[in-house]
Design a protein that fits this description.
The protein is mostly helical. The protein has five helices and two strands. The protein is about 55% helix and about 5% strand.
Length: about 120
């Protein structure tokens, strides 16, 4: 997730953050099931107050773009077709598993392509 806050913009930082996350959800860069950084971590990364990030997350949740699962964190919500959303969640889980095994993204892609060819 790449977010850039323009301190010279007339748009408030919380709004810039909200709009950039929404754009990434809509264009598929952030898919269903993707875990978002914690409020504190993202605030530190962007040089914002934690309350600013929390406000953005609350608004995104009210729009249905993300869902907060208590202490488990915030995730991109399933939007649209249930089949596509399930596939997006499976893909997200696959990436987490492969990375957890210490494999590279290139190896992960090769494994998916081999599985598709073999199916």
């Amino acid at each position: 997730m790449r977010i850039v806050i323009d301190s010279d913009s007339s748009t408030a930082p919380f709004e810039q953050l909200k709009l950039q996350i929404l754009e990434q959800v809509r264009d598929g860069r952030l898919i269903a099931g993707t875990k978002l950084p914690t409020v504190r971590a993202l605030a530190e990364e962007l040089g914002l107050a934690a309350n600013t990030v929390a406000k953005s997350y609350r608004e995104l949740e009210s729009l249905g773009a993300i869902e907060t699962r208590g202490r488990l964190g915030s995730y991109v919500a399933s939007i649209g077709d249930a089949t596509t959303a399930a596939a997006e969640r499976a893909a997200t889980e696959y990436v987490a598993t492969v990375r957890g095994l210490g494999l590279s993204d290139d190896v992960a892609r090769d494994l998916v392509e081999a599985a598709i060819r073999g199916a």
